[in-house]
Specification:
Length: about 600
């Protein structure tokens, strides 16, 4: 009755008022939802800081007891007793695939503080994986500043701690093979960094294999050789791989830097000038182009003298560096059509100073550069022949020290099929030390992919025992990878396969089978290394030293121990960082190589 008595204007006003309230309500709800999404995304990014590869949920009871204390003392938001640490401190810039970290160690390897920022991956197409080089640089600068702030908060008394004096030097360790092209004059990248796991260069492999085969054919024709039988693409690739391994220890695979550089030259318009003859009048433009791995890019931008440099461990992963002559190989540069002037100068891994870092460490020298896996080998002190480490990160990387063997061109015939020979480190005034390496492409990324199979965040504690479910008729297996497989098969087209799934299979059993599958691959590769090249191991050398986020997974480490023997996990997971810290201390003169041994 009252509504009937209201005039049209009143009804219209009520309608407008209701619509307005509804609109503001919807707007408010939308803002709240957006804010919740941002908070969730930020929480996810924070989770990734500790380790964006393996993110095994931790036991709340253990955290209350303080047993999971890897990062408890790294935030720097509290005062600390300087007497609990041994001076001098050494720093490490750890530029990984998943995150950028800066870590400060004391002289005994104890982590004083650290800061990490996760990195984004760009995936324009299936198999293509890129990162923004400027994000890598920006996060490195931010981490340096944050670590300095934390140190000052921890030790506010300037009489007991001086940032410029007590942080004696830094080392740099980086994701290997990831390749960047940038301008010598502006420092700006010409293209995103192509990540080591990227597979876009399969066509380049065919091109290089055909070019090598044609060169061989021409030589055969000139020598009137009878070997003119036609070869398949696979045979040509294998033939070229054998040639490359005899010089570099590596294979003709998408993993390595030379193929990425060749792709950049052929596909990025601003780099096409490099494919023209060196006598081209646009030579100045050619000289503007620099190539390098992440260590080279960071050194150029961070250090005061802007050097274009790399170290032997990173250079030995390019397919351009001859590990026997310890220099770029002119035949390989010609094969890949890459001008030597665009490549960084190769230096030893340790130096008194490669240059000085930016503020607030502007008087602190960078004294070491190492690829991340070689750095982890050094961090574990795997210095004797046959000592072995296994890093569970974005991928899984197994490296066995070969000692100071006489590595000649014929040595490649003794390398187990599908494994790699690489330079481990170069001790001062000594012969280079080499290592045998096996790479599993998918490690932590597989665990991340399996997250939806977890019914609850705390479910990981039921995965500590990877023994197959007795209610299942047979054990299930996960084989291989999601986007190609590395050692020993090297097949970019391979896709993951589950075997033995039955109606009784549960999501938890699928997670367990995937983790068991990773350990089976690790075990196969360790046995392949041992049966072929390592004889007479002592007890120390029989240990498998593990690190990386995946080493926190109790079930995986126990399964590996049951298959291969003693597995040793360090108190700190920062073995790559500590390895570069050790190398930096050697370069700075804080300790000698003999003391490290």
């Amino acid at each position: 009755t009252r509504i009937k008595e209201m005039d049209r204007n009143t009804l219209t006003g009520l309608a407008v008022w209701g619509a307005t309230v509804g609109m503001f309500g919807a707007f408010h709800w939308t803002r709240q939802a957006a804010a919740r999404r941002r908070m969730e995304e930020e929480e996810e990014r924070k989770k990734q800081v500790n380790d964006t590869t393996y993110e095994t949920p931790r036991n709340p009871e253990e955290e209350e007891k303080g047993e999971n204390n890897n990062n408890n003392n790294h935030n720097g938001n509290h005062r600390a007793n300087i007497n609990n640490y041994t001076k001098p401190f050494v720093g490490s810039i750890d530029s990984g695939t998943s995150s950028t970290r800066v870590i400060i160690f004391d002289a005994k390897g104890k982590v004083v503080t650290s800061h990490a920022i996760p990195l984004d991956k760009i995936k324009p197409k299936l198999g293509w994986e890129e990162q923004d080089p400027e994000q890598i640089l920006k996060t490195t600068v931010e981490c340096l500043k944050e670590v300095a702030t934390k140190l000052i908060q921890m030790f506010p008394d300037q009489e007991s701690f001086d940032l410029q004096k007590d942080v004696s030097c830094f080392g740099l360790t980086n994701q290997r093979e990831t390749t960047v092209a940038w301008s010598k004059y502006t420092g700006k990248p010409f293209y995103n960094a192509i990540i080591w796991s990227d597979t876009r260069t399969t066509g380049v492999i065919t091109e290089i294999a055909n070019k090598y085969h044609d060169n061989i054919q021409n030589k055969s024709n000139n020598n009137q050789s009878n070997d003119s039988s036609p070869k398949t693409d696979k045979q040509k690739e294998d033939q070229c791989s054998q040639y490359l391994q005899s010089k570099t220890g590596l294979l003709l695979k998408t993993y390595f830097s030379a193929l990425k550089i060749k792709w950049l030259i052929d596909n990025v318009p601003s780099l096409s000038i490099l494919s023209s003859p060196s006598s081209d009048p646009k030579l100045v433009a050619r000289e503007d182009v620099l190539f390098g791995t992440i260590d080279s890019f960071l050194c150029f931008h961070l250090l005061s003298n802007h050097p274009h440099i790399t170290d032997v461990t990173n250079a030995s992963r390019t397919l351009l560096y001859n590990i026997h002559t310890q220099s770029y190989d002119s035949d390989l540069l010609s094969l890949f059509s890459i001008p030597s002037s665009s490549l960084p100068t190769v230096l030893p891994s340790s130096s008194t100073s490669f240059g000085f870092l930016p503020e607030p460490f502007n008087t602190t020298p960078l004294c070491a550069i190492l690829g991340d896996q070689q750095s982890a080998l050094l961090g574990h002190l795997c210095l004797s022949s046959s000592s072995l480490k296994c890093t569970f990160g974005t991928g899984i990387f197994i490296m066995s020290n070969l000692g100071e063997k006489n590595i000649n061109n014929d040595f490649s015939t003794r390398i187990p099929q599908g494994l790699l020979l690489t330079q481990a480190y170069s001790p001062p005034n000594s012969a280079p030390v080499y290592a045998l390496e096996a790479s599993i492409k998918l490690g932590g990324d597989l665990i991340k992919w399996l997250r939806p199979f977890h019914s609850s965040p705390n479910q990981a504690h039921t995965e500590d025992n990877l023994t197959p479910d007795p209610n299942q008729e047979e054990e299930s297996f996960f084989v291989g990878s999601l986007t190609g497989i590395y050692s020993p098969f090297w097949n970019d087209a391979f896709r993951g396969t589950w075997i033995g799934i039955s109606p009784s299979s549960t999501p938890l059993e699928l997670v367990k089978s995937a983790k068991r599958g990773l350990i089976y691959m690790v075990s196969d590769l360790i046995q392949s290394m041992g049966q072929n090249l390592n004889e007479g191991k002592n007890e120390e050398e029989k240990r498998i030293k593990v690190d990386g986020g995946g080493s926190r997974d109790v079930g995986m480490m126990q399964w590996l121990a049951e298959m291969e023997g003693e597995v040793v996990r360090p108190v700190s997971e920062e073995m790559s960082g500590w390895g570069s810290g050790i190398a930096a201390g050697i370069g700075k003169g804080l300790w000698s190589w003999e003391e490290v041994r």
